[in-house]
Amino acid sequence: MSKKLFFVVLAAMAGVLVTRKVASDRAEHDLWHDATDDLEAS
Q1: pTM value?
Q2: In 9-29, which positions are buried (b, 16+ CB within 10 angstroms) versus exposed (e)?
Q3: Tens digits of per-residue pLDDT, 1-42?
Q4: CA 28 to chain centre
Q5: What is the predicted pLDDT for the residue at 17?
Q6: How far is CA 16 from CA 3, 8, 24, 30, 38, in A?
Q7: Residue 12 and residue 26: Cα distance in Å, rounded?
Q8: Where are the alpha helices (DSSP H) in 1-42?
Q9: Which sign, positive or negative, has the C-alpha torsion 13, 18, 21, 22?
Q10: Helix, strand, coil abundance in the chain, percent, nearest 5
């Protein structure tokens, strides 16, 4: 029983880390897009 709980907690932690990484990458992409948006219009 404790092994199952351990793996469930481990999977949940991995999911949270992946979600945070994706959100961080998306925010950085949006920042660069906003910073270089004027260059594309020229």
Answers
A1: 0.68
A2: eeeeeeeeeeeeeeeeeeeee
A3: 799 999 999 999 999 999 999 999 999 999 999 888 876 554
A4: 10
A5: 98
A6: 20, 12, 12, 21, 35
A7: 21
A8: 2-41
A9: negative
A10: 95, 0, 5
